[in-house]
């Protein structure tokens, strides 16, 4: 005849319960008891030993007055972490016949209604017994230390611990773990010997196999016989499988005294160890500078404006600069003289970047002089003269595209093989906020710079595997000769209307270019730095 029973046990896990469980079981795993270490884990706070809420399965015994429940088989999965002050509801259903006694149990977080633990198994009823007490303060017979094994340390590893579960320790468990969790604990439910032995799996996992970085996820165990409070037992774990992909470790376990009494398996998820951050000395030594020293930068359209300022800033940061010019020979040579007078290195090379052969010669001369090229800044532009769109001929568009797009591509095509040979490089292209926030009369300029934006993204995608970064600098109107075609009074009026009350300064654009050319931007590609002066677009 079958006797089905159903129980619901409500309890709350407190910090005192965690402390008591650690003392009794010897499981002082840092993920449970050290907030500083736990906050660096995937859980960001201390996690309750999963065996604490699991141990309340012993309250199945409330249904069988005058008997102790001794578990024969248990199959348990820890599905979600439990945290201090979590209110938990344990629902137990059991089938009790003369031939078999089985249970199914589910632990839920009451606030979230999430399933935390599931367990099923078999048990038997035995007469209540008492054994002689002793002076043990913990189930562990000898002290163990917390291991810190990483996943590569675990294949074929074997760990052991020796324990004993006396009645005095059972009383302690009731007083320190069961009672604080339940407001109205009626009657005396002592954890059975077999259950206490199962709890020692927490100690094996948390302290030795693998230790600090463990999250217990599953166990299956079968008992050949009941364990005795008077005897000492050895719990052994042997690792059988380690998966780096899933960060899961599996092990077979056994419990024995003079003879084997239980066997099973465990599954553990390994938390990655906390990432070690750079020391202050490393930061000072390796990351406090732009690392442009001795780098070679080729800057197109560098005889005036943004290009000129960028060349001077790069030289000041230790780079060797190739100043490309089309018609401004005197200006370019003067910039070279300035750089050299300040202790830098630079050369000026005339090149019409719309002529592919001329670009080849420019790159050849740069390599002959400096032996390498590390940075390409595509800054050259045709002009900024406003023109009504209805007055535009295709040739107007084509002239701008020849410089901004064809010339840019010609330079990239020559320099990219050099970058590949170097093992990396930086490409910085210049665009404008007018691409996303257009102004009247600049359709050819905006069209060309829109193409530059698309080209840069394509570059970034194609060159990623070669450690070549391609990015955009996108300034608002900048105080250079390029915008002198706009009447001065109108330029001043535009500046006064801005939240900043001014235009972008050339040196600010140069600083953004320097950032993208430096090692500080190694993780950035296909992106844009927008100098918008607080106006749209907002990147």
Provide a short characterization of the protein structure.
With about 550 residues, this protein is of the alpha/beta class. Helices cover about 30% and strands about 25% of the residues. It has two domains: about 5-150 and about 160-230, Thiol Ester Dehydrase, Chain A, CATH 3.10.129; about 280-530, Rossmann fold (3-Layer(aba) Sandwich), CATH 3.40.50.720.
Give, in spatial order, the strands making up the sheet with the most strands.
Answer: 1-3-4-5-2-7-10-9-8-6
Helix count equals 14
Helix content: 25-40%
Distance between the termini: 73 Å
Biggest sheet architecture: 10 strands, antiparallel
Beta strand count: 17
CATH topology of the largest domain: Rossmann fold
- Based on helices, strands and strand pairing, what is the structural class? alpha/beta
Query: What is the class of the largest domain in the CATH system?
Result: Alpha Beta
Write down the overall geometry.
elongated
The name of the CATH architecture of the largest domain is: 3-Layer(aba) Sandwich
Question: Your description of this structure?
Answer:
This protein has 539 residues and is an alpha/beta fold. Helix content is 32%, strand content 26%. Strands 1-3-4-5-2-7-10-9-8-6 form a ten-stranded antiparallel β-sheet, with helices on one face. Helix 8 (305-316) runs parallel beside helix 9, helix 8 (305-316) crosses helix 14 (506-517) and helix 10 (356-370) packs parallel to helix 11 (394-422).
